[in-house]
Each structure stands twice: as C-alpha cells, then as structure tokens.
Here is the input.
Amino acid sequence: QVQLVESGGGLVQAGGTLRLSCAASGRTISMYHTAWFRQAPGQEREIVAALTWSGDITHYSDSAKGRFTISRDATKITVYLQMSNLKADDSAVYYCAASPWIVPARGVMDALSYDSWGQGTQVTVSS
Here is the structure.
C-alpha cells in the first residue's frame, strides 16, 4: 500500500473551478493505477475519474466527462483532478485511491479495485 494525502478542496460557487491534489508519500506511483472517488452525505461512494498506470488512459463518469480532468505530474508522485463548471451536485468528500494492479473483472472504475486510499477532502459548491 501507499500513503495518499489529498488537498485542494474548499467552498466554491457554482460554475467555478477547483484543482484537487493527491500526493503519494515517500514514493512514486508511476506503476499504480489511480482514481478519484467522491461520497456525498447519505450516498454511496462513486467513481469520478481514473488514470491507468501508464498515465495515458483516462476514464470518467458520465457526470465528470467534459468538466473534470485527471492527470499526473512528471514526478509521478502527485495526481490531480481539475474540476470546472462545478455544480451543487458535485459537493462531496473527494477521495484519492491507488493500486498497483486491477482485477480485470472489476476494472479501474470499481472502488474494490483499490487498496490505498487518502483521507478525503471536502468540496462544497454553493448554488
């Protein structure tokens, strides 16, 4: 497992932008699949975006497509989630996750595929 620390959450008005960061502690995640999930009060955790270990294949939920971008920096230590045109429905705690391998039957969009999780960062979008 790898330690992950999220940052960048906060309060933003609808239509605004935020960039979340997920830093791996003490090691690179160049060989890890990574993803962002979110969980709103009373709701199940849901996938937002995923990035394969190669860094060049991305997957997005329908709600994130066209508005959010997942990326990894050149040092391969930090993963980002750039969010734009934010909506009130995007309000949630956002979690970063990583795993060195993915069960093919589950895929990168399944929370059960990941064995390392951050503590989460709160995003609140005011309408």
